[in-house]
Model the fold of this input.
Amino acid sequence: MGKKILIIGGTGFLGYHLAKKCLKKKWNVTSISTNKPSKIRFLPKVKYLVFDITQKKFFNKKIKNNFDYVVNLGGYVNHKDKLKTFKSHYNGSKNLIDFFLKRKIRSFLQIGSSVEYGNSKSPQNEKICYNVNNLKSTYGKAKLLATNYLLKKYKLNNFPGNIIRFYLVYGPKQDFNRFIPIIIKGCLKNDDFPCSSGTQRRDFLYIDDAVEGILKCIQTKNLKGEIFNIGSGKPKKIKNIINLINNKINLGNPLFGKVKMRIDEIKNLYPNISKAKKRINWSPKVEFEVGIIKTINYYKKYFQNT
Done:
């Protein structure tokens, strides 16, 4: 009999790919989001629930089934609205944890973020305990508070919760407000597009590897109260990535140095992934150039059909 998984944020980029993979495994998939899925991310066999997880009153009305696994990918994407960002990423997570604390589930996975490490030096490892008051972004504070709340419930109530901290995940069907889709679009449209000097180094992980990290984490037995970095562990210079995409498409003109880097921008941001390799037997499989080609090919077809 197939497992039952609840994906909060199942209509988003990561949620869609996770749901698709779970359906292939013959699992029963339910999604919670504030909006219905877009046409390109609709999966016929997924049960879509539409409500706001910051509103406790909806939980008992909407969530009727029991689940083996709960994965929280939810949260407001536009971080300019600070109040909405905080409520969705902290209050929403807290509501979910409190709700499932009273129900029998095998695993609850909170999707955190690399920003929870603040300006800690890379390669960042899970032992770093950053003070939430020192984090500058509302998003970072909300994510770290959610992590701390889950760990507290693990210690007090033996709650079967874990946290994954992703770095930069990319791949087909990602929105155009993310770095790699922006560059691919600029090249495919043959535009002149402004960029920073590109001297920063960042960690990029293909979507299939990210999904596999989630599945390994929720299916590993007797795993509770742990944090895992999920990334490639191989940082790449932003300028090199832009040039690679530009060369593969052979169109577009990146204008380096036209976008000023923030004064507080971290130059090098990448994880130590040895814990994930050891504890959940996960490691990235898709080489960066292979993932980029798959992603470019998807967007080529996308623009041909729109």
Notes: Residues 4-168+204-230 form a domain with the Rossmann fold fold (CATH 3.40.50.720).
